[in-house]
Please model this.
Amino acid sequence: MIFKSPYLLNCSKYSFIKYYFLIHDEIKLLFQKYLRMKSNLLRLACFSLLFSLLYSCNTKEESIAPVEESDPTLFTLLPSEETGISFINKVQNSKEFNIFKYRNFYNGGGVAIGDINNDGLSDVFLTGNMEPNKLYLNKGDLKFEDISDAAGIAGNKPWSTGVVMADINNDGLLDIYVSNAGNMEGNNHDNDLFINNGNGTFTERAHEFNLAETGFSTHASFFDYDKDGDLDAYILNNSNIPVSSLGYAEQRDVRAQDWEGVPKIFRGVGDMLLRNDNGKFVDVSEKAGIYGSLIGFGLGVMVVDINNDLYPDIYVSNDFYERDYLYINNQDGTFSEEVQKWTNHLSLSAMGVDMADINNDGLTDIFITDMLPEPDQRVKSVMEFEGYNVFKLKQSKDFHQQYIQNTLQLNNGNGSFSEIAYYSGVEATDWSWSGLLFDMDNDGLKDIYITNGINHDLTDLDFVDFFANEIIQKMALTGRKESIDSIINKMPVTPLPNYAYRNNGDITFSNYNKQWGFEIPSRSNGSAYGDLDNDGDLDLVVNNVNMETFVYRNNSETESSNNYIKLKFEGSDGNRFGIGTIARLYYPNNIIDQTLMPSRGFQSSVDYPMTIGLGTTTILDSVRIIWPNDVTVKLTNVKANQSITFVQDEAEEIYKIKKENKTTILNQIENKTLLTHKENNYMDFDNEGLISRSLAEEGPGLTVGDVNGDGNDDIFIGGGKEQSGALYLHTGDGILSKPIIKYFEKEALLEDTAASFFDSDNDGDLDLMVGTGGNEIGMQGNYGIRLYINDGKGNFTLSTNKLSTTNTNVAVIAPSDFDDDGDIDVFVGSRSVVGTYGINPDHLFLLNNGDGTFTNVTERSAYDLKDAGMITDAKWLDMDGDGKKDLVTVSDWGSPKIYKNSGRRLSDSKSSLDSLNGWWGAVQGYDLDNDGDQDLILGNMGSNVHYKPLPGQPMKMWVNDFDNDGTIEQITTQNYNGGDYPLHQKKELTSQILALKKKNIKASDYAKRTIDELFPKNVLENTILKQASISESVIAINDGNGNYTIKILPPQVQFSCICGIQCLDVNKDGNLDLVMAGNNFEFKPQYSRLDANYGNVLLGDGKLGFKWQNYSDSGFFIRNEVKHIEVIKDKKGNEFIIAAINSDTPKLYRLNEK
Model:
């Protein structure tokens, strides 16, 4: 992570100025991980200079403070005096080797658990960085004996990292494979293979098996990738080259040893796939399609069959700018890297990885750790996020979308994942290493245990901003070199407790640190689980830096009445411990799917027997075992609380994958005539530095209707800037004409964000009104509406009649005969004022004069619309049953509004929805409960977002010219501890409001200040204040008299924002169903993005219950940003759904074919 720059050696007190130019890029990337700073590079260059001149250091080891007696917890931390495990992974900086010469200096050691002597008790191995490795023999009752010296496993390498136990020589005894690294000059970092001699001793034989010379290794995983019956190996390496010297190089196809101009010490060999050929491991990496580039900074590797084809796939988590790798096994000895095909975004500083099924649907999910802190105040004290420009640069260089956050990839079962860490509540656990998915409380659900901590809080912004500058200035003036002691002693030290998340059974997790006994602050790295005392629950061992190893006893057998089952495996010759074996446990509404794969988490290896919690279940319907060679056995009516040993040679049946050709609710119609929408490049954030998301990608607009009178609905889809909109004539059965653009080519410069077909001139055919929008400063003079007149045959001409405009970002065009005079009037809702987010835009209410011309009657007939806010959607619906359609609007940072139609004017009609402030994006109205009135379906941002309101704790946006410089700023706050705290980073806010910068507030002070403490009362009193109290998408049941009952839609709907809604009976059971879609990508990097929803089909039961359908059942799957969806029909009654997608080709689906 941090390296010592070769350019900074022997710098004098003045020479750092000239060296600045040499290390500009290096500093920028160096501190991307540690400091997350992208400006003031000279200061940071000097900061690196400071540490390159340090000489000596004393690192204090810490003892574990005694824990006061309290209520019993699920886990008990056992003292070393009781367990006999007293190992401390001491890491001490020195002149020759320190954190500034080796960036992985604080990555810590690993843990392996396994029964090395086959006595039925699991033993423990711990790797040391500067300490000898340790092996502890389990003597029973959680007491261990240190046999390291006698066993001969201490190792003679200076820096051990990961460890895995596996039977490498196929003798039925677990051997120990230790990865080694470190970049000290002359360092022998060959990996070690300790072969088990069967008598309590081991012999190092890595060279004999060709497993020694493997680069700067982090970890390894042994598995049978080619299904030939023996164990192959994946060696995970971490590139040793200074990150910034790469300059975001995307040369992942160039193997590390082939990079030109790179010193040999930095080359390494990249990741390696080694095939076992009769006991010799042969490098087949390049032939197999495994990347081995210098840009690979591997910190985690996990092997599981991710696509359920019975062949093991490989996931590699990469630190720094390189994206992770997901290698799909091609079943022919090669792999295809498909992480971008399967995922929409990843962790940026990806650390450890584990894969397991978190929701018992039989599909494997993925959890990756990163370094985002949890408390808001700590985020603002230690974090600087990647700039949007850098993010887009990396995206353009094929590094995918990466964000600083833990990621939880939920397997959708169709070759895709939905990243839901924010929804699940597991996104932020600070500087995290190991993340393990296992059932900690035996309730039948996988929980999450996360280790975290760094020996010194190097990201502390106060230290960087103030103390570092002070030292640099002192050195520059005096020429004296500061000792590392004086520096490190003043560097912040913030040990944090590790995290334990309890699985709530609804795809969310709750922090159970206190209830489960994980409250001790530490600096923890590798961790592993196993049933160390054979009592039917999983105990835990954690390797710490400069602290004693944690040994936690699991008390599930006494603290709960949950059941368990233990599965043991005896594999065939070549793989005697059955690595890769799959166990599937079936009981009502649950499928527990678990793979025997010891290498998990970070640098660690878990125990071989599977100890699986069952909750209250006492009898399993069945247990199926699938061995690596596809032979299988199935047991039925299996009792809980027992141990079962499965023997591969006793299995005879071959497991066959069932191929189902299911009928889906919707079927996509392949249509090559639909044009791909092309969004132009424009960056809002250059002009509005405090907004969280771009407003420049609101198109394309979409509308449907029969324009040529043939009984088939036709389609208009708007174009992007400098792209023509297109009309598609529908000839029936989903067959569309080639795009007709000739009517719209002259207006191609405009970005079409809204559209609507309606009869504007009362001639019996549908005309077309198109709205123009965006957020591009200088273009607002072109923003507005235009009208195309239909000649009755589907030919259109641009009307020359002048239409009123507001020169704002048009969001919606909603036509309706407001005054019942026989012609169609129009409401035009605006999304935003161009370049000034947060100010309420003007909207238009146009009265049809009966001849195709319109009069702006907004002031006269719809005065209340001035407070409608930043409207995103609108519908005309009769909400009070008086026979007149009222106007219903939804808005960003606002509430759903109902404007009652009296026949003469629209007036704000107060309702219980007025308090439902949110980030609404869509509205639709139907009678969902069959009581004769209109209910509402309201699309919101969802719950899978970084910042969201909580009950009684609304988020707020404060809009004002806070420093009287003529520029409007938007400050967003979150509410906690009784105050409203800005969520912006200090640098972000002070760069926009210079008056704050002049106050020279420390980051830690800023982090604690509410907005009331940052600005005077008179400024805040004159501020526009908007709120959001709910982020979920809901249905609002009309109870009459302006009262509505709110019901939150299912979890999968909340994975992303909703921008389009349709309500219809998709399965013809007489009940209304919902079809919804959305996503929004263009956020600043610190907010991640909304991409976890691929479309929703929810089947209604007629009783206000809506059940989400998985993608393999619904057939509705759209990966990108859906802006609108509409239903179209043909003259035979067939129904279709068309989706307009930003920067993508529209998609057409068939349903209910008649």
